[in-house]
């Protein structure tokens, strides 16, 4: 019998840097948003995602061709181990069930037993394709004729990598699939557990506010350039020139408008930064 385990983590990290106004003239505004990245665990794959995937295991004895595995039983025994460890039960999630079911079907259809499909798709793809919004997802796989639901969960628990997924304190939801079929010419079972920490578990980042800040940053940059052009133009006129006074009034008006929007930008930036910091604290606990 064979096993495999995988965990993926998505971290959203962002930072906004704001410099204020000096001498009543526009200052610099720097907007920096770092990209979202995948990654968790001890070994990095060629694709850049970090994976936790111990070597596949095969049990030489146990189980028969009459073995029957059930979603309900696997969930029951999985949660019994969590309760024994002082953890909350996993909540079943329909979208994770769909991801697990599609993975089982795909492995039978394409005759592979691995966290990545022959075309390079992993648990992230299956979760996304099922419409599951997550902070982190993980995956346990099993292949073989186990005696029953208790037997397969016990086998996972005997493997450190699979046990870590089952007893991970941050995973709260699970999807399960178990199917009997033909694999490499033999009648056998394939089982999948997909674990998840839903995105709703961490404080929300208002992405519309982030886009608003980016847009205002561009507007402020344009106004800053215009103010500099006006300042240089003023230096070419005499103070008592009629156009000079008109240009001064326009310069002051645009400067006041700039400063008002700049103060609002600073407030929005502070609010956005607070959201990002709270989100990052939540994610870093994984």
Automatic annotation (TrEMBL):
InterPro entries in the record: CAP_dom (IPR014044), CAP_sf (IPR035940)
Taxonomic superkingdom: Bacteria
Positions of the SCP domain: 78-186
Pfam hit, one: CAP
Protein name: SCP domain-containing protein
Organism, as annotated: Candidatus Wildermuthbacteria bacterium RIFCSPHIGHO2_02_FULL_45_25
